[in-house]
Amino acid sequence: MTNPNPDNKFVGIQISPISFIDEGVDTVLETLEERVGVNVLMIGTVSWLGLKAGRSISHELDGWPDHGVPEPLTMKGGAYINPHPEYYQNTLIKDFRATDPEISDIDVLEMVIPAARARGMKVMPELMEPVFKYAGHGSVNNVDIPNLPQCLEVDIFGRIAAEPCTNNPDYRRWWHSLIEDQCRSYDIDGIMWCNERRSPLDQLIFGEAPGCFCEHCRREAIARGIDVEAARKAFLEVYDYFQKARSDESFVDGAFIEFWRVLLRNPEILIWERFWLERNKDLDRELYGIVKWCNPDLEFGLNVWNRNHFNPFRKAQWPWEEQTRYADWVKPITYQHQSGQVYLKEMADLHKSIFRDVTPQEMTPIMYKLLGLDEAPWDDLMQTGMDPDTYVFGQCADAVRGVKGKAPVYMGIGVDAPRVQADQAICTPDIVYRSVLATYRAGGQGVIFAPNYTSMKLANLDGAARALAELGLM
Question: Which DSSP state fits 391?
Answer without folding.
Answer: I
